[in-house]
Structure to design on (699 residues):
């Protein structure tokens, strides 16, 4: 997609950032409170924290890289 | 495609009847964070539809996405249109049953055909500037071939959309306990809105979004599973000790005889049936996937798109096959013993009544006697002991998700499944809209409409398509026998179409009458073979060369015979009819077309370079997992 239109990668960046931050926040709350969801394995690895961080970072990269108004998309 | 059909078919005979008897406990319970994640997804797809509406007011904009997609977007959309949730769940279940052999459907069953489409066929599809595959047949063979193909495509797509819708609703009921009508209405309204507003562009954008979501939602499952299993080596050791066979880890080694591998297949069937007829038929002629590549912004992008798609296709087994294999050793019952999944028919036979015990204990006991479930566990099932319910192979992926994904991550995983379902529906509906408008309405009903009129008809046909799909979904739900016919549609149609398109593109001598008769008689021949076996199952030994052939083998062999029959018709009729002058075949046929000169690019941007890289990786993977 070209010109001043919003790129699909911008939408993807926005979605990943939102999801990443929500999951990261939930993971931090779990870790801090020590209350883990019953029945879920490998809670000790704190997957929501690092997976949420990864999604948020990837999303932020796309959000900035393909923000509306940039010409090199 | 085949997985979608067989999965949907198994749903009809399995959980639906079970759920009719008793509203079973869902596999997962969503928290408010999970619901928020799903709601954000719906808001995003609708926003994209409204945002793109302004760019979809012309025929090219609405039906062909303005032909301005980059190779990456077209390529991801191309592979994503095929990567529905049923594919994910169905193949994870197949990996649980058959091991790594299921990977053939992702590698030899896709990669060569995708490369062939990009390198050899795309120039003719693209240079001819056709709107659709039936449109190409019109240019190459004339009006009659186009009409036959368009009617077949339109019927197949609308029924498939309904099957997809129905299957999604059943999965959502089994996994989350959602009401079937609620799931059908919410998903169909969302699809009608975003495709109706933004056309193909909106469908493509959402397919790319879906592709990213599937990886974001599903990748964590094999990673955590491998950590728990002790890596790849640990997984192999556990499977060997639990199942006593290493056939689960070999793609080719045990395919020299039907009985030596878990799937019961022979390498000739994999190479010729799957690798050629089924795979080439689907990836190079099914308009649902080809339409995505036609939206590319230039010929080089159109040729690169399937090659880019093939790279991602090769990686999909990591999030599909691996969770199935991991499920074999990691899924546990409430008492800590290894959980054994069973077929949908066993789950249906043991559907519980309101008391918690099987509604028909005799049938349940008889069905379980054919499984390897331990006798003690079978007794627990018959006694209705809480936590001893049966789960099917198709539930391997959701069960693995529930095992590792907590609040938020589970919502993301479920969103990935919903996105996959909706994308499948949207793909079918957008392709239906194009075929209906350009290949049926325009030539048969109104040849002189304005561009805006056809866009209006296209939008209307999306609403109509969604409405008919909902009807098809309920039809499948209430008349189970219909599914067999829907399932057969694809395999009946694909082989004759592949035959006439290959002869059309690569043989200048093929004539219009030959193309039309080849397609029509090929479809009739294929349908006759289907009905022959349907009316008298004994005939299976003639069609599939074995009385013990499974439905997949029957489809493969029927496709092979139909392809050969179509080829003979095209050759014979062409021999006795006058071909078109070569000058009229420019842009349509190999050897009669001067392809446009493309700007010189470095070698690492050329399609042949990347196709070579893909082929080398493909060969290496097959050797590594030999």
């Amino acid at each position: 997609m070209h010109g001043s239109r919003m790129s699909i990668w911008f939408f993807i960046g926005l979605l990943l950032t939102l999801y990443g931050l929500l999951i990261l926040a939930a993971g931090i709350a779990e870790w801090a409170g020590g209350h883990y969801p019953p029945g879920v394995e490998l809670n000790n690895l704190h997957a929501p924290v690092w997976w949420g961080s990864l999604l948020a970072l990837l999303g932020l990269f796309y959000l900035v890289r393909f923000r509306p108004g940039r010409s090199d998309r | 495609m085949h997985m979608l059909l067989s999965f949907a078919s198994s749903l009809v005979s399995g959980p639906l009847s079970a759920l009719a008897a008793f509203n079973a406990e869902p596999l997962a319970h969503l928290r408010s964070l999970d619901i928020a994640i799903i709601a954000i997804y719906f808001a995003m797809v609708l926003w994209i539809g409204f945002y793109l509406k302004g760019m979809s007011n012309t025929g090219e904009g609405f039906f062909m996405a303005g032909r301005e997609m980059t190779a990456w977007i077209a390529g991801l959309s191309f592979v994503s249109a095929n990567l529905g949730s049923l594919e994910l769940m169905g193949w994870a279940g197949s990996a649980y049953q058959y091991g790594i052999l299921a990977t053939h459907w992702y590698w030899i069953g896709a990669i060569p055909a995708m490369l062939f489409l990009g390198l050899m066929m795309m120039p003719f599809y693209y240079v001819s500037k056709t709107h659709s595959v039936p449109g190409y047949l019109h240019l190459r063979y004339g009006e009659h071939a186009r009409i036959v193909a368009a009617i077949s495509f339109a019927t197949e797509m609308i029924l498939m959309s309904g099957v997809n819708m129905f299957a999604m609703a059943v999965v959502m009921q089994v996994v989350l306990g959602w009401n079937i009508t609620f799931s059908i209405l919410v998903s169909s309204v969302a699809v009608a809105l975003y495709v109706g507003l933004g056309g193909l562009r909106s469908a493509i954008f959402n397919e790319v979004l879906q592709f990213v979501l599937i990886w974001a939602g599903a990748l964590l499952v094999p990673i955590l599973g491998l950590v728990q299993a002790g890596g790849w080596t640990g997984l192999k050791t556990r499977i060997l000790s639990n199942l006593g066979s290493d056939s689960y880890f070999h793609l080719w080694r045990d395919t020299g005889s039907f009985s030596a591998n878990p799937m019961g297949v022979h390498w000739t069937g994999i190479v010729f049936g799957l690798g050629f007829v089924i795979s080439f038929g689907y990836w190079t002629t099914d308009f649902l996937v080809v339409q995505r590549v036609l939206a590319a912004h230039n010929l080089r992008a159109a040729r690169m798109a399937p090659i880019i798609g093939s790279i991602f296709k090769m990686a999909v087994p990591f999030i599909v096959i691996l969770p199935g294999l991991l499920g074999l050793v990691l899924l546990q019952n409430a008492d800590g013993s290894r959980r054994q999944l069973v077929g949908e028919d066993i789950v249906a036979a043991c559907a519980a009544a309101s008391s918690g015990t099987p509604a028909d204990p005799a049938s349940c006991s008889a069905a379980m006697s054919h499984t390897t479930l331990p006798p003690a566990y079978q007794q627990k099932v018959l006694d209705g002991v809480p936590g001893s319910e049966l789960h099917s192979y198709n539930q391997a992926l959701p069960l693995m998700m529930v095992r590792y994904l907590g609040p938020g991550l589970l919502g993301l995983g479920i969103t990935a499944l919903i996105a996959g379902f909706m994308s499948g529906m949207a793909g079918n509906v957008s392709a239906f809209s194009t075929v209906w408008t350009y290949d049926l309405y325009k030539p048969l009903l109104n040849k002189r409409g304005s561009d805006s009129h056809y866009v209006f008809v296209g939008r209307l046909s999306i609403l109509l398509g969604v409405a008919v799909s909902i009807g098809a979904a309920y039809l499948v739900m209430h008349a189970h026998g219909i599914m067999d016919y829907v399932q057969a549609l694809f395999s009946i149609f694909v082989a004759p179409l592949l035959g006439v398109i290959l002869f059309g593109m690569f043989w200048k001598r093929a004539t219009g009458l030959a193309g039309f008769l080849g397609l029509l008689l090929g479809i009739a021949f294929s349908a006759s073979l289907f009905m022959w076996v349907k009316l008298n199952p004994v005939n299976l030994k003639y069609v599939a060369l074995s009385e013990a052939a499974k439905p997949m083998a029957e489809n493969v062999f029927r496709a092979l015979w139909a392809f050969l029959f179509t080829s003979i018709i095209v050759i014979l009729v062409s021999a006795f009819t006058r071909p078109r002058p070569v000058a009229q075949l420019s842009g349509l046929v190999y050897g009669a077309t001067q392809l446009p000169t493309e700007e010189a690019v470095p070698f690492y941007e050329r399609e042949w370079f990347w196709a070579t890289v893909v082929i080398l990786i493909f060969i290496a993977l097959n050797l590594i997992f030999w």
